[in-house]
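Practice record 12: protein with magnesium ion.
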Amino acid sequence: MPDTPHLDQIASPDDLKNRNLDFLKAVADELRAETIDAVSVTGGHLGAGLGVVEMTVALHHVFDTPSDILIWDVGHQCYPHKILTGRRDRIRTLRQGGGLSGFTKRSESDYDPFGAAHASTSISAGLGFAVGRDLKHEEGRKVVAVIGDGSMSAGMAYEAMNNAGDMKKDLIVILNDNDMSIAPPVGAMSHYFARQVSSKSYNSIRKLGKGVAEALGVKEHARRAEEYLRGMAMGGTLFEEMGFRYVGPIDGHDMDQLVAVLRNVRDAGEGPILIHAVTQKGKGYAPAEAADDKYHGVAKFNVVTGEQQKKKAASPSYTGVFANALIQLAESDDKICAVTGAMPGGTGVDKFAARFPDRAFDVGIAEQHAVTFAAGLAAEGMKPYAAIYSTFLQRGYDQVVHDVAIQSLPVRFAIDRAGLVGADGATHAGAFDVGYMGALPGMVVMAAADEAELARMVATANEIDDRPSAFRYPRGEGLGVEIPKELIPLEIGKGRIVREGSGVAILSFGARLGEVLKSAEELAAYGLSPTVADARFAKPLDHDLIRSLVREHEVLITIEEGAMGGFGAFVLHFLAEDGALDAGVKIRTMTLPDVFQDQDSPYAMYETAGLNAKHITAKVLDALGRQAEAAAALA
Ligand SMILES: Cc1ncc(C[n+]2csc(CCOP(=O)(O)OP(=O)(O)O)c2C)c(N)n1
Ligand SMILES: CC(=O)[C@@H](O)[C@H](O)COP(=O)(O)O
Ligand SMILES: [Mg+2]
């Protein structure tokens, strides 16, 4: 544990008030050490937090949080903020079951006025707070939104600035420019920020900033503050064109400069202001600074060496299987393209890009654009695979409906991180895609039961050229099954029987199949031998398979790694319309529960969700009227 005599004096941000700069700098140093130490035992997002340590201390010193509103965009950089705002004693529970969230969360603290985890929401939310404040005539309260350069690639940020610049509300936006997203940043705006930073004025302002900060002092009056601000502003920036006053670039690790600038901005009066702060992701921890990803997201690690305790994977990841299958197909099909929204590593598009650089596109944190861009590619006769996490595809849903589905354009949606993802919690759960994709006329919706199925689904989607298709697969490793060398496409809308049995049928959609097969073994002890089927498709549904399962069994259970309103609902709808329900057939649908589940290990989350083998066993017994045995199976 680090030695932290200054940080020990900070129970809340109040303890940062009336402190001198030397004290604040000492707190920052200790806060950085404490953050590194905590993440070394929990794993999590490290690089982003290390880049805002000084900014976090300065913000809580200058502003009167939580009365003043401080919003962290994404929230993955908020661990130092959590340590300063009364959560230090629980910081080593970050991202663990029952512990602190890895993001800002309203229910966790008054110092988290707005929850996040998806990018680029902070300016919109901040403007909402500012307008609400003014409507309540509480004009003295300040609103600050801190947004990263990567998150400034999303349309939402500009929609918010467009609105804020026009409304002229008192709102402070800090552009935390570390020249990194998860991967290197992309896009013209990223080049624009770089030009601002590399301009000569930055260097002179750095020197000037220190001098002026020393000269100004805490109680300097407003006129001097205004002059200082004007001296810092570079003039003619895009932000100024949008109605913001622009301050910077400033050194986001220089406490003297930060405190002086924040104070002046705080006291500068009406209207939106943007402070351009240049920071370094991973700052102050050599292994993070040296790493390509700046330790964006890490496993537990050794603080001295920086070595991460990554578990050796027994099988390839689903993501890797997707990437390899796509590359294999693209070797002989030059129409195949891959699109990612700032997640090249997470989706495997980086592998595809290494092989086919001209056919891989990282469009930034811009899922809406990613979907419509893919629609344009498809309309031009290309075969785009939009590889997007289930949770982030939510942001592009109108584009899926309006730009893709209504026009029957053959965009292939590779939906990664389907189902529960573990430590990232509710904000990142891939819970809803089966329902929202399956609702769309013409859409083909598949889910992979294992990695071999996934590889074949990639090939199946390649053949679907007259309408959109989607295939979903979970985070993490596959089951270790062999992947066929030749990727034979599946027959559209046809499932498969995996295990012949009688009495009970379990129809699985997606990667719960492993748990279903475990349950089938358990059920032998109860004298039962269920039929197990893999639906493969939620749309079109395999009507023949479902009819035969119902006809030949007393009980039908459906199971999926998704929210209600998905596969089970589609099956029930079909059976109701088909008249099967009139005959009193016993059907149960197993889905994620109707709650937003907090973070835990994926296994524990599925345990809470009631979707592991023992729950399936209990569900079968319960449906058969064997309640006592069902309860015992759960014990
Ligand atoms: C809508 C959305 N898409 C993708 C992500 C995944 N994501 C999380 S952080 C991040 C990079 C953010 O970069 P930046 O805002 O510059 O913050 P930094 O990590 O550099 O501090 C991305 C792409 C997300 N959280 N939300
Ligand atoms: C904050 C964020 O959205 C990403 O960093 C996310 O945590 C990555 O998740 P994976 O680890 O599943 O790629
Ligand atoms: Mg960044």
